[in-house]
Amino acid sequence: MAGKFNYGGQALIEGVMMRGSGSVAIAVRNPEGSIVVREEPISATIYRGPLSRIPFVRGLGLLWDALGLGMRALTFSADVASGEEEGGFEGPVVWGTIALSLAIFIAVFFLGPAAAADGLHRLLGLESSLLGNLIEGIVRLALIVGYIWVVGYLEDIRRVYAYHGAEHKTINAYEDGAALTPESVAAYSVEHPRCGTAFLFTVAVISVLIFSLLGRPPLWVRLLSRIALLPVIAGVAYEYIRFTARHINNPIVRIIAQPNLALQRLTTREPDAGMLEVAIVALKRVLAAEGLS
Q1: CA 98 to CA 190: how far, in whole Å?
Q2: What is the pLDDT of residue 5?
Q3: Residue 161 to residues 12, 201, 222, Cα–Cα distance (Å)
């Protein structure tokens, strides 16, 4: 979609966040059935500054800011959906929560698989460092997929997954130039190549490739390397997602992107018309703020 900004979003509790080049809009349906919207500007330095044009660097700033936006949006949506007043989830509280969440993510999905693979490597008497790193990657991917699959059975998460589908359908419709109405948007796919689920899968796969280059040093060195190289892996994964999204109509790229698109079937559900309406309201508010509607 030449000449247009790549809009993105996030599914929330009874709502959707849509992000543009200069603003973000959060639309949430309250218990009375009304749609409550919150809009705020986003960092021009991160999204439109010089660093946003440097490959492998731009992704880190964008991802870090997206974490902050996502945390604030989730808190806002929880307050609105429960009929409560918006809480004060700002500043140090946001970044402290993000730091704790990242620490848990690294411990469970990076350090845990490394330690488990080391135990299996010793138990089975394996000598191949490549095989040991492959086992680690398989354990990591299994944990990620397993977690997504298990939480998907929770009713509240199933609704979030349906709003995730509404977010994707709305962006797909906009990028195709279709009318932004529930009837029109409903016809589009719940899959999208720039999805965060695709990013997680890509991180897991790229980590296997990068860690395999390091051989099998002592466990403590491997654990430190998993932490130290995570920004590198994230930067590479972001560029890969960006490339595949821009060239998704290329048959070869489409084939390469299939695992990422397939995994989204676990994190999306078909939304109802009300969910589509919420996603459309969020995107329209962003487009209006940027003079595009």
Answers
A1: 28
A2: 58
A3: 9, 17, 35
The identity of residue 42, as a single letter, is I
The pTM assigned to this predicted structure is 0.87
Give, in order, the Cα–Cα distances in Å from 153 to each of 102, 149, 160, 179: 24, 7, 11, 33
Q: Cα-flanking dihedrals φ and ψ of residue 247, to 5°?
A: -120, 30
Q: Is 30 exposed, middle or buried (0-12, 13-18, 19+ CB in 10 A)?
A: middle
For the chain, the helix, strand and coil percentages under 3-state DSSP, each to the nearest 5: 65, 10, 25
Q: Where are the beta strands (DSSP E) in the chain?
A: 8-12, 15-19, 23-29, 35-41
Burial class (CB in 10 A: 0-12, 13-18, 19+), 53: exposed
Q: pLDDT tens, 139-163?
A: 999 999 999 999 999 999 999 999 9
CB 3 within 8 A of CB 47: no
Tens of pLDDT, residue by residue over 12-53, are 999 999 998 889 999 999 999 999 999 998 887 787 788 878
44's CB contacts (< 8 A; 6+ apart) are: 22
Contact (CB, 8 A) for 226 and 112: no
Give whole-number Cα distances, 267 to 28, 32, 109, 234, in Å. Answer: 19, 27, 18, 20
pLDDT at 63: 85
Residue 228 exposed, middle or buried by CB count within 10 Å (0-12, 13-18, 19+)? exposed
How far the first Cα of the chain sits from its last, in Å, is: 17
Domain extent listing, the chain = 8-289
Pick from 1, 30, 5: nearest CA to 278: 30
Identity of the amino acid at 265 = R
* Residue where the block lists tokens 């059975």: 153
